[in-house]
Amino acid sequence: MTFQVKIHQLRAFVEVAQQGSIRGAGRVLNLSQPALTKSIKELEEGIAAQLFIRRSKGVTLTECGESFYQHARLILEELRSAQDDIRQRQGQLAGQINIGMGASIARLLMPAVISRFHQQHPQVKVRIMEGQLVSMINELRQGELDFTINTYYQGPYDHEFTFEKLFEKPFAIFCRAGHPAIEADSINELLKYSWTMPTPRGSYYKQLEEMFSHRDQIPRIGVVCETFSSCISLVAQSDFLSILPQELGCDPLLANRLVMLAVKEPLPKATYYLIQRRDSRQTPLTTSLITQFRRHARQVIY
Q1: How far is CA 256 from the centre of its chain?
Q2: Closest-CA residue to 71 (of 86, 51, 57)
Q3: Closest alpha carbon to 288 in 146, 136, 133, 132
Q4: Which of 30, 145, 150, 193 is found 20 to 30 A from 39 (Cα to Cα)?
């Protein structure tokens, strides 16, 4: 007879894996250690595989455990989403939506859309993750993010996700107010300075990296910032240069600290996409939020 995995066993397994110990999982799930140990033991016996390696200070996943963990997380997220979907179709306008935003989208699009959506649906909990697409791949795969709005550089994810183009946005070279290069009108004049960029992995900055690789001389990128905010802070308070969204030059909080350089060479625009798992089925309220992002995106097209 095929072993039937029970939901409480999946929840116990996933929480133990995430906490790294049965004791920690017990605190989160409000269950005793013996009850959790029993669930894990029944699960391992049922699927005929060892999922954890027991150590003196907690547990770690085996190779089989790691593989099973990826499936178990997705199952639990799909179950949560399915329950939200049914409740919403029955008129209960509540649940949870998990979204990912590129840093400039979090500054430009997100505040107005989320504020309006929250006013319409105050019972819905929205979790926002900020960063480049590559930092969100696993959560998208596991259903822990419902969608993201981000830049994308063609690569290995084409078959996993759908990419709906929303808009393009111009970028520009920035320096601090009072920078010695403030009158420069070409990239060649800027090559003697140090540059900083957000990480180039699979995004608009990967596109820039490719563009610069075809030049005889390229900027000297001495610092790679993993976050957008650290890149902005470094440019605003030092002699580093960077390429950032053009609208930062009009940002009331940054306009007196950042100066956009009027160089003659054109920079490529960044294309932003609505990105979802190909096999995902969104709840009614998630679909409504996506629609609001689409509408607002049309208003910011340059």
Answers
A1: 30
A2: 51
A3: 146
A4: 145
